[in-house]
Amino acid sequence: MNDSVVEQANQARLLATAEVARLLANGDDLKRVAALREDVLIKQQANKAQLSAAVASQVEATKSGLDMLTRAHQALVLMRQHFQDITRLCAECQSLIDCHDKIAVLSEVHYNLRKTLQDVENIAALPLEAAEAEEMLRDNVNLLQVYEMLASLEGTSMKAQQALESGTSVNLREAHNLGSYFQKVRLTAGKFEERLWSIIRNFLAVSQEDPGLLVTAVQVVELQEMVDAQLVAAGQGASPLRKAWRRRCLSQIAMCIQDSFAPLLQRCSQLIAAGENTDQRVTEILDGADDWVAQLAPIYDHVAPCFPPSYRIFGVVCAEHHRQLASMIDFIGLCADNLANADILKAEILQRCKLQRVMQWIAGYQESLGEFGLEEEEVAFPTGPQTGVSLLINTYVARIVATLSSWLSNIVEGDFKYEPKASAEGRMWTPGAVDFFRILNEQVAVVAEVDRGDMLLRVGQAAVATMDHFQAAQRQHVSAGLPLEMLCAVINNNMRCYDESLEFAEGLEERFADNFKGSLDVEAACRGFLDLAKEGAAACVAVVFSDPAFADLFTRLYWTEEWRSGDVTSSVLATLEDFLQDFERMVLPTFYRRLAEALLEECVAHFVAALLSFLKGVTEDDVAAIRRDDARIRQFFARFTKPEKVARECQPLIDVCEFVTADSIESFVLSYTALLTSAPSITPTLLANLINARATSDKNMTKADAREVLEHCREVFVDRQARSGVDDGAHSAAQSAAAAASAAAQAKGAKAPTAKEAAFKAAVNAARKRSAAGALTSPSKPAAT
Questions:
Q1: First-to-last CA distance in the chain?
Q2: Taking the CB of residue 42, how many other CB atoms lie within 10 A of it?
Q3: Which of 59, 129, 195, 687 counts the highest number of beta carbons within 10 A?
């Protein structure tokens, strides 16, 4: 160690000498000796201060180490003493091992004795604590505290009773004395429950006057629910301490509502005995029900916040209200036959200050519940066949149907009893269509104010059925035969009804609730009016062609000189011109062209039938006259409809002309095939006269040729019928109406038709049946002229 210090000192001296030599390397460096000495002094002082601090720190660390050694020594001494004590105690306890069983028994006896004394003290305190709880119960503020006290007392009482019941040497007198203690607890608990349920039953008033009390009562119920859950989890679900107060709470609320509704339902039950005098009673009942509906707002605002959300207490209260009000409606429904429609439906209209009636009340009630966020199915009354709502709806709808039927009969009778009216433009019309839809719209509007669901649907169905009846009633008059002016009125009226029915259907669909939209099909009834207008047009055509003078013109076609000269055809077209001028004045422009097309179709059918029936020979002059008639018809009707329509309708006439001018059997077959395309109902039998006329005029055609041509035509006809599957007896509605109207027109004072006339009519009917849609079966949207 000394050598090391000496060595360090020598090294320091050498380093110092080297440093001085470095600093004084030149002679000029001697001038800086004073400055160097000052620097060395400063460094020396700094080193000295640093050394002093290091020495002081080392001294302090040494002192701290000495203190720690002193404390460690003291701890070791103390630990040695504790070990000595442990050794001594172990030596003392060594002798107690032989008495271990006696010590355990003594300990258990001591515990049981202490527990028994504690239980005796608790049992002795039961009456006093129960009385204290009963006294506290006088103030509702202590409700929660009283519950906690009673819960503890009931637990103590229950354990004591179980101990008594399990004991084998219990004195009966002692048991009886203890029973009075338990009875006091039961009586106090009963009073507490009575107070609790009185608060729950009076939930509305308490929520408004003292909501904190209602909240406390619900807290008590929730605490008991927690106790019940713990008992169930411990396998003690059958314990008397499990009380299911939440279910009982909801039951108390329901019973309170039922008791409150009892007077109202009692008044409802008296409706049945009231007979016909129910109006004032129903008004009073609904006024009373309004008071109950008015309670829903304060229940929503004051009662619901006092209950946990899991209770959904507003829904529970509303559901019970709903059941009671449904019973009220059922009672009223049983008396529906004694209520006028105004009593069933009458709404509260502010301008008239009238009272609400049953269905309006139901709608307002459901709307009120909807404002509280209840779903639609939650506010709907039962709709079974015997429920009050169904009985009321059935009664009302039955009366509406009867009323509409009565009005319908009056409207139709009034329409066809008097002459039709003419508008400023000369259009024929009757007021029935206007009145009919005004009545329907009024009925639907009245019901829509009350109900947008099942009742509106039922009334809408009744309205649609009434439309069908209205059409059927008109159809009977049309088929029975009507004057031309009245038929024009039928066309115009039903065109207006068609537009009105579309508006009615659109308005009805808008009035329906979302879940009822699309549930009523009005389209078929709407189309029925358009079809009836078409039938009216067909009847107009039938009246025109059933005119005796006009019909006689067709019997002179294709065999008389006046036909060959063109006079007959001119007369036919002139007559049609007169009728078309009348129709242009009397019929709506939207239907005028359709009527002109119907006249075109019937005109061509009569010309074709006359050609099939009356042609006597086939000369060049006859063929030229046939082609001339075709051209004149085309030219005439081209003024009233499209040329392509005219060409299509006139095609059968030119096809028949091609048939009679055929020059071979193959040509006859081809021309007949073309004829069946444009007029598929012209049978080979109807062609017999044409073939005979051709055979009579053509020296190159024998009777055998004629028979062969006819036989080939039959084969073509049968083959075509088999392939197309067309029923030769099928008629369109318009053609049936035309035939019926024609027959009705001829039946008035006319004698039975001759065989020739019957054959001509059969030919006309065959010529009417076209492969393409005729004028009266064109698209439902009328074309503009």
A1: 139
A2: 10
A3: 687
